[in-house]
């Protein structure tokens, strides 16, 4: 599926169907991952609690993002290993 959108005031607008499909909301973390030839937008299930202080939010989100990126990288490496060798 190809989706056309635009950037305004340094913000990307995602279509409603993708927001609903992936459960994206304003209080959930979305990771932007530079994959070399583009940007991967990776929704997460992590929701920032409202009662946590800003400093704690940043520390918690940073740790969760690192764990998620590590998991994504592991999955990508596993996919590379599982690709059949074509001669």
Topology, element by element:
Elements: E1 7-8, E2 11-12, H1 16-22, E3 28-34, E4 39-47, H2 54-82
Antiparallel strand pairs: 1-2, 3-4
Kindly describe this structure:
The chain is α+β, with helices and mostly antiparallel strands. It has one domain (7-82). Helices cover 41% and strands 23% of the residues. The protein has helices spanning 16-22, 54-82; strands at residues 7-8, 11-12, 28-34, 39-47. Strand 1 and strand 2 form a beta hairpin. The mean pLDDT is 78.
Query: What is the rounded Rg?
Result: 16 Å
Order of helices and strands: EEHEEH
Uncertain residue ranges: none
Shape: globular
Number of structurally distinct domains:
1
The whole-number mean of residue pLDDT values reads 78
Q: What's the helical proportion of residues? A: 40-55%
Main beta-sheet strand count, sense and barrel state: 2 strands, antiparallel
Structural class: alpha+beta
Strand content: 15-25%
Number of strands: 4
Distance between the termini: 30 Å
Spatial order of the strands forming the largest sheet: 1-2
Quaternary structure state of the chains depicted = single chain
Task: Work out the helix count.
Answer: 2
């Amino acid at each position: 599926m190809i989706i056309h959108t635009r950037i305004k005031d340094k913000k990307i607008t995602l279509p409603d169907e993708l927001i609903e499909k992936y459960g994206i909301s304003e209080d959930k973390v979305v990771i932007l991952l530079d994959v070399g030839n583009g940007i991967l937008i990776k929704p997460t299930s992590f929701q920032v609690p409202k009662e946590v202080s800003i400093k704690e939010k940043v520390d918690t989100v940073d740790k969760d993002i690192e764990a998620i990126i590590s998991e994504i990288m592991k999955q990508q490496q596993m996919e590379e290993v599982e690709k059949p060798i074509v001669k």
